[in-house]
Fold each of these.
Amino acid sequence: MICGAEITFLIAAILSLNFELCFCSCARAEYEIDGECCPMCAPGNRVYRHCTADISTTCVSCHDSTFIDAPNGLRDCFSCTVCDPGQGLRVKTPCTRSSDTVCEPLDEHYCTDQHRGSCILAEKHTNCSTGQYIKHKGTAFKDTECAECADGTFSDGSFQTCQTHSKCEDLGLTEIKAGTLSSDAECGNKSPAGLIPGIIVSIIIIVAVAMAVTVIMLRCGSLTCRKNKQKTTKKSDNHIYLLCITRTHKDDLK
Ligand SMILES: *[C@@H]1O[C@H](CO)[C@@H](O)[C@H](O)[C@H]1NC(C)=O
């Protein structure tokens, strides 16, 4: 006769056997299908036909652009990841039948999101603004770090350190434009010192020549009159007289 306790034990034993069948029935390199344990396919391969009592699993290789990276009982391979330049990515390691593509950031990009050793999203390195210098250059995993220039220095944003403003005086020049945080001081020749006297001298010479010409013209006029009246010429007027010949001739003809 079977008593209640024995029935309970039996049910527990069957349940625990079932439990084992569901979760631990197949060996490590096997997979379970319809209550049967079948040998797994190697990485790079998929199941073509499940095993039967007589025949082992039939495996076939993954075809182009697909992969499986572990021993498996799968009917289909996975599609290889595409490294999208639009996401700032390029191929680091190409896809094989047994490993997915590994992507990395494009030049001047850094990875903002990663999955299993592959970058899945990258962004462009920040450009430092004018008045800032590059404190730390960007890498494949870190953005550029920028910092402000100190007073008396400048940077266009592409410098690793801010440059000191040029000291025009030390170069023997004058400062035309003061330096800013983004631009150097502008120096020019010390010309104003020599240029102004030059202009003054030129003006004096021009005025002197103009006055001399006027004087000669006036004297020609008076000489012509005197000549007409007296027909005599002072010795000192001879050289001026020569300049006046044309005019005198004209007057004599009248
Ligand atoms: C930084 O500057 C470069 C060169 O001028 C440009 O190609 C790039 O798009 C800029 N980056 C950003 C984030 O604006």
Amino acid sequence: MLIRNHESAFDHPHASEITPPAVYAQRRALLRQLAGGAAGAALASWAGRQALAQTGQAPGRLAALAGQRSSVAGAVTVEKITAYQDATSYNNFYEFGTDKADPARNAHTLKTRPWTVEVEGLVNKPRRFDIEELLKLSAQEERIYRLRCVEGWSMVIPWVGYSLAELIKRVEPQGSAKYVEFVTLADKATMPYVGSRVLDWPYTEGLRLDEAMHPLTLLAFGMYGEVLPNQNGAPVRIVVPWKYGFKSAKSIVKIRFTDKEPATAWNKAARHEYGFYSNVNPDVAHPRWSQATERRIGEDGLFSRKRKTLLFNGYEAQVGQLYAGMDLKKFY
Ligand SMILES: Nc1nc2c(c(=O)[nH]1)N[C@H]1C(S)=C(S)[C@@H](COP(=O)(O)O)O[C@H]1N2
Ligand SMILES: [Mo]
């Protein structure tokens, strides 16, 4: 794995260079207001405001997508939110390259409209959702989740979306449905690495139906009070906060209900390294490295991994019962 200093690798123009002066002055004023904790900032969501106050960085480049504060247990963490710039420039999205900086550099070619998500398989009401309809299917919520990659780094991100369960309920899974498979876009015309032999495309992932129905499993459309940047999986992705990041499939086009455990992209690439469950677990090492610690992007030193990783990424109280009686070393 290549570790680069993303601080110095990042050379976006300053906002002042790309924004008309009047708009820029307005934005500065808003930022000052937010940093001072002033009320009435209708533009940013509550977590978005918190992120701005903490990092002094505004997203401000994409369409706003606000969410109400979530009441789902475990949906809020008091940890410091990762800087927007870090969360959008240090990514895994292999369709756009294998280097952490590649998605931010290459994903501008992704076309996120028109976009549809096909829901099929063992459900009573299979159907195709247009993205605009999907956005409004349930109330958008803000959820602050950790995302931890199997590579040993983590971030804290204010996502915007709603529980995947809201969508699942509406299509009525049949009794025989035991798993949910997510299929993501594989478009050679806009995704330069689709066709390469890095992975078997399309990138797919899967969950057991009860995992998919858990209220913490998020169908995400935005982050930091805005729509998802392309490199983070626009226009719609999954975020499963207690599993390794690769379970959180980006740019989803199909959701399929099955009675058999679906194969997953990483499972097919290296079966003994990436199991179906992939629950964050400090006691189950990846065959080539430990999972006991992690490095928080933007906070911990580049080569230090001192932060202790928690079982189920710290969401044990919420999700532990899903795995009662299961040998987590066997079902890794
Ligand atoms: N379609 C697709 N989804 C994907 C990936 C990918 O390569 N393709 N990478 C996964 C991995 S390994 C991680 S760690 C997370 C990273 O999400 P982030 O870039 O928003 O932090 O996305 C996951 N979803
Ligand atoms: Mo990952």
